Amino acid sequence: MTVISKESKKRVPVRTIRLKIGAGEATPKPPVGPALGQHGLNIQDFCKAFNAKTQHLEKGAPVKVLIDVYGDRKFDFRVTKPVASYLLKKAASIQKGSSSTGKSGPVATLSRTQLEEIAAFKMEDMNAYDVASAVRTLEGSARSLGIEIKD
Q1: What is the dihedral of CA 79, 81, 84, 85, to 10 degrees?
Q2: At 76, is the secondary structure helix, strand, or coil?
C-alpha cells in the first residue's frame, strides 16, 4: 500500500479545463471567466500569465489551452500551437472555408510544400508519428475547408 502525503495530494489535478482562446486575448469575460470561476481560480492571474505566454503568437490566433486545476485552487496550463484550420486558412489567404464542401469547386489551393511547413510547425501538438502522417491529417482538414492541395 502506498501512502500519499498531504503535500503530494495537493499537486494531483482535480480537474482539467479545456478552452480555445485567441492568443493574447484572455479576459475575465466568457468563456474564460465562468470556466475558471466555478473552480475558484484567480481569473486575473490566469489572464496575465496566458497573455504573457502567447505574446509571441499572432494576436487573436485561436489556441487550445489545457488548465490543470489542483485541490488548493492553484493551476498550471499548457498552450498548444494555433489550431490547424486557422493555419490552413491563413496560408490559403481566406477568411472562412467552403459552406458546401465537395459540391462546389475549391475556395483556395495550397501547395504540398506549404502543407508540409504547417505540419512541421504543428507536429508536436498533432497525433502523428512523422511529418508525412501529419501532412495526411492536414490534407483531410484542408479538404473539409474546401482547400485543394496541388502537388
Answers
A1: 70
A2: strand
Query: For residue 120, what is its C-alpha cell?
Result: 512541421
Give the domain 84-150 fold: Arc Repressor Mutant, subunit A (1.10.10)
Strand partners, 68: 16, 76
Distance, CA of 72 to CA of 60 (rounded, Å): 31
Q: Do the Cβ atoms of 148 and 110 come closer than 8 Å?
A: yes
Cis peptide before 31 (omega within 30 of 0): yes
Cell of 4: 500519499
Predicted structure pTM score: 0.81
Superfamily classification of domain 12-81: Ribosomal protein L11/L12, N-terminal domain (3.30.1550.10)
For residue 42, what pLDDT is reported? 92
